[in-house]
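Sample entry follows:

_____
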Amino acid sequence: MSSARRMLTGPARLTGRSLLACLLLLTPLYGTVAAAAGNGERQASRSAGTGARITHVDELDDRTVDLTVRSRAMRASVPVRVILPKSWKSERDRTFPAVYMLHGGADDYTSWTRETDVEELAANSEVLVVMPDGGEHGYYSDWYDGRPRWETFHTVELVRLMERSFRANSSRAVIGLSMGGFGALNYTARHPGMFRYVASMSSYVDLDDPTVRFLLRLGSVMDGVDINRVWGDPKRHGDIWQAHNPAAMPGAFLGTKVHLSAGDGTPGPLDEGNTSSALWVGSVSEAALPASLTKFAESLRSAGVDVSTNLYEPGTHSWPYWQRELHSIWPTVTGVLS
């Protein structure tokens, strides 16, 4: 399944980023951001006690930076892309809300800026946009067999580093698509009160759904990842699966505004130019989602959660629809955070 998703995210494109980063190392801005990150990193290590630290900063442009974060939880270095708020450099005593954006399977932390115009969308926003890597098949979880520990990295280490190094405050949103949409819901449910807003695009929401179980098993075989390493054996460790199942925890979303979206799997004008194989995969991947999202939304409303849905026709599992959805929700995201 993840191998199929790779066809929908498009090839990585070389845009001279490495050369640009080297050139920007010579500008005064690099010193400003690197110093701020370094000071915050040392403070985070002392005060937050996570042990995670920023080891490298690359300036991609005036407001976009790539960080290398050495994670104690992951026992590895993890890349994170950050778009700075409009006033981040001019208002040095100010803190800012943060929007965490999670990528899909078989992709990485560059996907949102590679496939959408999020940088332009955020040009006049006073929010930090934080796009961490989540592994090609990381499932946004601390794995049952001990490593990787994506959840701890994202919800503990990275959040505290953003607060200490980049002046993020406690007003947070999380947006994800496909596997990242599951991650956004999983993190919100497992950490009540952490996020004011969560948006999940084209994601499975119920780990008990037989279709989801089948696709997860099929995808793990295709990708060479034993799904039992993630949450244990579903029969013997059913409690762990339920503890990572958004549909089993509707009450945990109280106090968070939830948005769910997906297409019906029918190709439309936004799919023009896709190959027949990409269209087929995008259609099959999306078609099963609306029914489960509708059921999940109903359970959230019954629990008193503020939830909105956008189940659109036509729509496949592909970037043009997620770009459109991002534009649609952005005013609400920034409004909730402010």
Summary: The chain has 13 helices and nine strands. The longest strand covers residues 168-177. Residues 1-32, 38-48 have pLDDT under 50 and may be disordered.
